[in-house]
Design a protein that fits this description.
Length: about 160
């Protein structure tokens, strides 16, 4: 839900409301609009109208058609964008942000010699994920957090893209 809310906020400047969240959760549980409406004290027609608008908004946000039948698969693809690093499933947390937090310092001098050189080797999949998240309007800090990468890596790629 956090991914969806952040993506919608990046596109519209507004967060999801309770009914919109309920519609997403209910849709993922294969509930009908009448069932969703009961939990939010509104009419099934109102829930359906809000649901239609929400699915159109999600189609814009995720840049692919979204409806009640494919919502789960669209969200799974979007979530995988944030956590997938290609074929390998590896834990990179141990290699991130272990150096000095000071932005003035040179990471090569602050890191122990045994530290793997993870800081400068973004995979093609990570680079594509960063570009996609930029399209969603996320800033470098949000992207670094979502992909569990250092802010330096994201900023270095951003400066390379500009040049």
């Amino acid at each position: 839900m956090k991914l969806i809310d952040e993506a919608v906020y990046a596109k519209t400047g507004k967060h999801l409301n309770d009914l919109q969240r309920g519609i997403i959760e209910g849709t993922l549980k294969r509930q009908k609009y009448s069932e969703i409406a009961e939990g939010y004290n509104c009419t099934p027609g109102h829930a359906k109208d809000v649901g239609y608008e929400l699915l159109q908004l999600l189609s814009d946000v995720f840049e692919e058609p979204v409806d009640k039948k494919n919502l789960k698969s669209v969200l799974e693809r979007q979530d995988n964008l944030n956590i997938s690093f290609g074929d390998s499933s590896r834990n990179v947390i141990g290699f991130i942000n272990v150096c000095s937090d000071s932005s003035d310092s040179d990471p090569k001098n602050d890191c122990p010699q045994t530290q793997p050189d993870r800081q400068h080797n973004l995979t093609e999949t990570e680079i594509e994920a960063i570009a996609k998240l930029r399209q969603f309007g996320l800033d470098s800090t949000q992207i670094a957090e979502a992909l569990q990468l250092s802010l330096d890596e994201i900023e270095k790629l951003k400066s390379e893209e500009v040049s």
